[in-house]
Amino acid sequence: MLRTLRDHLWQSGFAGRAAARSVLLLGVILSAAWADAATEAEAPATTANMSVVELVEQVRPSLAVVSVSGRDGKLRGVGTGFVVDPLGLIATNLHVIGEGRPFEIVLGDGRRLDVLAVHASDRHSDLAIVRVKQTGLPALPLGELSDLKQGAPIVVMGNPHGLEASVVTGVNSGVREINGRKMIQLAIPVEPGNSGGPVMGHDGHVYGVVTLKSAITNNLGFAGDVSTLRKLLAMPNPVTIERWRKIGALDPAKWQVRFGGNWQQRGGRIAVTGVGDGFGGRSLCLAQQQAPDLPYEVAVQLRLDDEAGAAGLVFHSDGGDRHYGFYPSAGKLRLTLFDGPVVFQWKILHNEPSEHYRPGMWNSLKVRIEKDRIQGFVNDSLVVESKNLKLTSGMVGLAKFRATQAEFRDFRVAEEIPPTRLAPQLRARLERQVDKLGGLAHVLPEQVSELVDQAAASRRVIQQRAQELERQADDLRKLELTIHAQHVARQVAAILQVTEAVGGAETDPAQDARAAPDSPGGAQQSIDLLRAALLIARLDDAEVDIQAYVDQVDRMAAEVKASLGESATGDDTIRALDHYLFREQGYHGSRFDYENRANSYLNSVLTDREGIPISLSVLYMELGRRLGLRIDGIGLPGHFVVRYFPSEGAPQVIDVFHEAKRLDRDALEELTARYGHRFHEGLLKPQRPAAIVTRMLKNLQRIAETRGDHLRMLGYLELMVAIDPTAVQARGMRAVVRHEMGQEAAAVADLDWILEHRPPGLDLRQIERMKAIFQRE
Question: SS3 letters for 654-708?
């Protein structure tokens, strides 16, 4: 709701692919002769401390490209493998070859190898060993991880994004325990296609197998310990490639997969992973059975791994881009007409949350298709009815979007499908039984006898009761954070001398935020900008000791002052400040993780000695104020700087982010042009503390919005509105975020304020429509 086209496209699959997950292996044991052949190759003689060039020349013939195809024969992904036995064994990751997927292996010399079997595999360690027909292959020797010391140089070879035999060097950053696995932390970038590649020391031995890319930074990855690979070689569980390709495969007589995606069947359940080829990552799994004549119903039980995903039913499908879809998406129930391959040809007929949907649990979806209407049900409750009848016939089946992982069971098509809801009398009786039990510590086996007699129904009742309690706990956590954010907002507003705090009388603090101080002893000097900026960090960490950081800045200023003589001028003082801050203390602009919110939290800036332009400028200004200097904040477009006013001579514009670099007219013109603006003297107007703190909050709010972090967004917006109650944009955004978090009454209150004050240039009809939607939900 209320998403821009950009947000809609992001939700439709442009947020990047989820990390590949391991899959379950079902295998049969082949001949003992193969098992006997699966011994580790003898390590050839190696040269200690080979150069990277020498090492690459030795390894390249043993490196392999592993290409995985979909059931339609199209290339789905590329990974890396390497020879571990001259008798024809190639090691890689299990997630690289997938399960039930055709794949091929090409050696570094260009030879296409004939795959005979998956000789060994292990889901927990995400490793697979593939047997090929060719023998006499150049195997890499396996080392012992204990011989690879922390800090030792390493070389990794792989095929990132299909770029074959790429080389990257780094160091062993350390050995970590991750999900019960011993992993080598690699100080190198890991990209799709690197998976399965060898991690080698300069002695030519393999010490690990690249497995994971860090979710924190692009320049970090992890590799499994080579000892796990040794164990797998010693204890194979071979499966012929013909049988491997059939593991989990859907019955083609019952299902037809369109637009890719990895659809697999386990017993009575169908699971789907991967990203489809259709726009927005769409993938279809259509039933081959003929849909009955109208009216008819189609239903399925669905469970999502992540409620941000989207998967469900399709009907009236032409086998391609045109069909209807009924499915949960980002916590809401959506009915969509897909009338073509791109988003502009899609029409969302319904997109609302439902109290009947149970996040994280199995949910029953059902669609009833009649001659003149479509009805959508969730857990037997009607949630949508549509008269859209553009498509009138076609196939039925399942769909998923983006990188969603989902499970389906009990797919049915019939003239009428009975409800799954418990009879009211049975539900009431079981609920009374559950309520009588009290705490688990006092429950005796005989007290749950009736619940055991109705085990399936009892589990549903208990699950729903637990879900209700979890929702209540979630609401309480959100309430606690809202109260905390509003408390911090009042503190900041009081410091910045905003007359209208939360719930107060009307003023125009925006005018104060725009006004320039007249002198060093003016209004700006009486406002504690440092304390106000430090309070921002309290939103995320209520335990931040504000006074301790204020004391630290006081000590820093005292140290600079102690280095000056009695006759020191203002210019002497600011030069001493520059030397102290950037030469002695090592403060600097953020080089590698600019978008980290810690760069905007002044306590973190003081601790890490790293920040973005505005946070470093606030520290510089506050140190200057304590040293008797007049330093104003200048909010240039896209880049915050300061201006120092000496007792004599022209003011100096200083770029604190670049270690107090002085900016002349040419440099200012170049800097503003970089952000699409033309420089003029009006841009050097000083900003009041309220405007500076608001700019810091806007930076944080933008980062939180990009990451979909509503809780943090709400905290930043609370502060912005407290600083400037007339800030219509912040208030409107707060209304939307409050709505997304289920705070409907508070969201409507924000819209009522806008409607009452009628700010110029705003389409109030849109606000009225938004209010109606909020009230309806």
Answer: EEHHHCCEEECHHHHHHHHHHCCCCCCHHHHCEECHHHHHHHHHHHHHHHHHHCC
Three state DSSP letters for 235-264: CCCCEEHHHHCCCCCCCCCCEEEECEEEEE
Tell whether 356 and 225 lie within a shared domain: no
User: In angstroms, rounded to a whole number, what is the distance separating the alpha carbons of residues 714 and 734?
Assistant: 6
pLDDT in tens, 51-88: 889 888 888 999 999 988 755 556 667 889 999 999 99
Q: What is the pLDDT of residues 214-264, one digit of tens each?
A: 444 455 678 888 898 998 899 888 888 888 877 777 888 899 999 988 888
- Domain total of the chain: 5
Residue 238 sits in the same domain as residue 94? yes
Collapsing DSSP states into helix, strand and coil, what is residue 741? coil
User: Looking at the domain assignment, is residue 491 inside a domain?
Assistant: no
Q: What is the pLDDT of residue 162?
A: 65
Q: What are residue 82's DSSP bridge partners?
A: 63, 91
Token match 């045109």: residue? 322
**What pTM did the predictor assign?**
0.54
Q: Is 488 among the domain residues?
A: no
Same domain, 314 and 373: yes
Mark whether 86 and 210 lie in a shared domain: yes
For residues 152 and 174, give the distance between their C-alpha atoms in angstroms, rounded to a whole number. Answer: 10
Q: Examine residue 670 and state whether it is found in any structural domain, yes or no.
A: yes
Q: In 3D, which of 181, 156, 175 has the Cα closest to residue 167?
A: 156
Domain check: are 195 and 298 in the same one?
Answer: no
Range with lowest mean pLDDT among 387-396, 429-438, 606-615, 692-701: 429-438
Give the range of the structural domain holding residue 461, as residue numbers without chain letter.
443-481
